[in-house]
Each structure stands twice: as structure tokens, then as C-alpha cells.
Amino acid sequence: MTTAKKILTLALCLTCLTVGMTGCAKDKSSSDTKIAKSTSSQTESSDSKKIKELSNKLEKLENTLSNILGEDIFDPSDGDGNVNGEIHPIYDDTAVVEAYKSGDDSKLTDDKDKYIFKELKKAVGEIIKDDMSEYDKEKAVYDYVFSQTHFNDDSLVAISDESEDDESYNPYGFFHDHSTICVGNATTIKLFFDVLGIDSKIIHSTENGEHAWNVVKIDGKWYHLDVTFDGGNEAPDYAYFNVPDTAKDDGSYP
After folding, report:
1. Sequence ranges of the domains in the chain
2. Cβ(204)–Cβ(90) under 8 Å?
3. What's the pTM value of the predicted model, to 2 decimals?
4. Which of 14, 19, 169, 213 could disulfide-pair with 183, CB 3.0 to 4.6 Å?
5. For the domain 94-250, what is the CATH code?
């Protein structure tokens, strides 16, 4: 799950808890009238207990949110706007795409590229049909990437401190480990689009932390595509699927 997803989820939780506490207060007010009439204190006692429990949960969620909004995640700069540390590199898929289009992987010298090629070929065969439109292919790729990976919380920060075994920022991490960060999602989606002949690019923002997503050209028009920010659980909710430039104005993007 992305930091943005965590924040949105926690914000929703905080809202729900606040509403719940307000609801309890209303229930309590209503119950007080009944209590005065019935001379019973059971409802009031129960409501007070609920309010206390919700207050404790609210405090814990606020602490969690505070930790997530720490400087290590959102302010990796040196004070002058420059990001400290190494930014995750963007995977160059040229060799794999050429191997896919030619059907010959003999020129691939990197073992990880060979693995990516093998898994990519298998995946395309599973999800892409000959009679699909460009849009259908795009959606099939989006759904596949969403379903096959989980977000690597250990690599949230822009400063690259991952071990040599961490490949969550490229397609190898997707296919081999099913674990990615935003850069891994964006490069994997572009890899699929490149072999399918769908025009796309990667936007890699590093000004306020790091985030990467895709822009894709469907039926002659460009759209933003961000599987990392998708808020779905078991299935995508498509909140950032083929959205216009105005979607970036909601405060979610660096």
C-alpha cells in the first residue's frame, strides 16, 4: 500500500471514528431523555464506554498518521529543494522489447532480463486476445499488474537504501517477487505497452519525495494511469485509470 493510500485510509478511519463518536453523543443525548423518564442508567453507561473506546482508537490512529507523515517520507531534501540520496532508476526495457518483437532472446545477456522476457511472454499470452481493442488491452494490463503485486512499504522513501536483492523498482521485482513500488509499477506497465504497441510514457517526479506513474495514448488522446494510487482492495477501483490532467490537481501528486 502506498503512503498516499495509507493516509487516505487513515483519514477515512479518523472520519469514521469521529462520526461514530458524534453518533454516540447523539445516541447518548436521546438516551438521556429516555433515562430521565425511565430512571435507568444502563444506556448512559454503555454510551460512555463506547465513547472512551473510540477515543482510544482515535488516538492510536492519529499517532500512526503522524508517523507516516514523518520527514523521512515526505521531506528527503537538503533544505534547498534538492533530494538527498539516490533516486530509483527507471528500467530500460529496450533489450526485452526487441527480444519480444523478434521472438529471439539469444541477445539478452542479463539473467534478470531473460526472466522478465519469459514471464512477460507468458503473461501477454494469458491476458491479451487478438480481437481486443487498444483500450481493452490497456485495461487488461492494468488489471493484471494490480492483481499480481503488492506494494513494498520498505522502499517508500526516495532515498535508495534497499539491498542488492530488492528489485521492487523494476519489472523483475514485479514478475519474480510480486513486490513493487510506484517506479516498479510504472516501468512494468510501460513494458507491457511497449510490446503491445501502445504509446505511453513514464512521469518520474522527485521534487517532493518520489512518485512515478504512466501517461498513455488511447484513441488519439493522452491520459494519466496510476495503478499505485488505485484505492481498490480485491479489485481495482479505477480512481486513477485514464484520468485527465485535472486529476493531478487534487493534492495527491508531487
Report:
1. 3-69, 94-250
2. yes
3. 0.65
4. 169
5. 3.10.620
